[in-house]
Amino acid sequence: MSATISVVIPVYNEEAGLEALAERLYPVLDALGRGYEVIFVDDGSRDRSAAVLRQLFERRPERTRVVLLTRNAGQHMAILAGFAHTRGDYVITLDADLQNPPEEIGKLVTAMDQGADYVGTVRARRQDALWRKAASRLMNRIRERTTQIRISDQGCMLRGYHRTIVDAINRCLEVSTFVPALAYTFARHPVEIEVAHSERAAGKSKYSIYRLIRLNFDLLTGFSVVPLQFFTMVGMVVALISLAFVVVLAVQRIFIGPEVQGVFTLFGLAFFFIGILLVSVGVMGEYVGRIYEQVRQRPRYTITAILEGEPPRGEFPDTTSSPAVANPDHRSEGREQASKVNPALDHTEMLRAEHEPGRTP
Ligand code: UDP
Ligand code: MG
User: Fold this and answer.
1) Nearest residue CA, atom 23 of ligand 1?
2) Partner of 323 at 20 to 30 A CA spacing, among 28, 36, 131, 167?
3) By three-state DSSP, how is residue 70 classified?
4) Residue 343 has what pLDDT?
C-alpha cells in the first residue's frame, strides 16, 4: 500500500483565503490516489477563521481534522500542535495563504517515495516585498555561517517530513523553535527541490519586523551558540588591542611627557565599545530569556477543541489516537487544559467531535 499523507496547515486570521485554499487543496490530494488527512491548526484567530474551518470540516469530515488552539502560539508552535495529531506516513506543511501552491505537493511526495526523509524547498521567483527578500538573504547567510543547518531557503514552509522525523520532533519539548531546522537535525536523507511561489491570495502577512527578528533569534539561539562565542572572541581581541594601547601610552608618557590629545577620538572609541557591550549583553539575554521560558515548563500551547471524524476504514493504523503518544507530555499538553475549560463536560466527548449532527461541540 502506498504511503499515506498528512497535510498540516497553521491558520491565523486567514478567513478570506481558506475557501480558496480548500478548493485547490482537496482536489490535488484526491488526485494523488492515496490515503490522506488535512489538519488545520487554528492558532487563536480573532476573525472568522475557526468558523470557516468548521464548515470545511463538515464538508469533508473523513479527511479533515481541526485543532483549535486557545491563544495565538505562533506559526511554529501551531505546526507542532498539528504534528502531534498527524497519522500519515508523510507529513507535509503548507501555509494557509496560498503562497505555497498545493499543486506542488505531488513533487514532495515523489521525492519522499524515492527515499528522502526530509524534503526542503527553494522558492523559485519568490513573490514577496523587496525588503523581505533582502532580509531573508542576509539571514540565510548568517544562519549558514553560524549553525550546522544546511537549508537554502529557510523561509519556505512547504516541506515534507517522514513519519520518523515527525515522531522525533514530537518527542522534543522546545518552547521556541524553528520546525524546518529542527527536522533537519534528525534527517538522514535530506533533499531539496524547487517549488513555485505566489503572492498572498488574501489578507496580510502576519509577520511584523519585530516578529521576524524574534523568529530569526529563535533559529539562531535554538541551533547554535556561535553568537555567544563571537562576542567572547570580540572581547578578547579588544582586550589585546587595549593592552597594546596602554603600553604605547605609558612609553609616550615616559619619553615625551604628559599631553592631552585625541579626547574626542577616545569618546568615539568608548561609545563604539559600549555599543558592542550592549549588543553582547542583548545576545546573552536572548539565550537567558529562552532558558527562562523553557525552565518554567508551561504548556507551549493549549487546545480548546479538536474536530475530527472517522477516516475511511483501515487507512491509518490507529484512528483513535495520535502517534504522539510516544511522548505522554504531548497528549497532556493541550488535552488536560481542554478538560479544565469546562470540567462538567466529559473530556473525550468534548474533544472528539464525531461527525454526527448535533454532537459537535
Ligand atoms: N501563522 C500562524 N500563526 C502566527 C503567524 C502566522 O499560524 O502567529 C500562519 C499564517 O496563517 C500562515 C502561515 O503561518 O498560514 C505563514 O504566515 P504569513 O503568510 O503571514 O507569513 P509570510 O508568508 O509573510 O512569511
Ligand atoms: Mg505568507
Assistant:
1) 205
2) 28
3) coil
4) 36
Distance of CA 292 to the CA centre of its chain: 20
Q: End of a domain among 280, 295, 310?
A: 295
pLDDT band at 333 (very low <50, low <70, confident <90, very high): low
Q: What is the pLDDT of residues 213-243, one digit of tens each?
A: 999 999 999 999 999 999 999 989 988 998 8
The answer to whether residues 72 and 137 belong to one domain is: yes
**Chain position carrying cell 511526495:** 109
Candidate of 45, 75, 157 to mutate for ligand 1, largest count of ligand atoms within 8 Å of Cβ:
75
Q: Give the domain range for residue 232.
A: 226-295
C-alpha cell at 186: 534528525
132 lines ligand 1 (CB under 6 A): no
User: What does DSSP assign to residue 158?
Assistant: -
291 and 309 inside one domain: no
Helix (H, G, I), strand (E, B) or coil at 22: helix
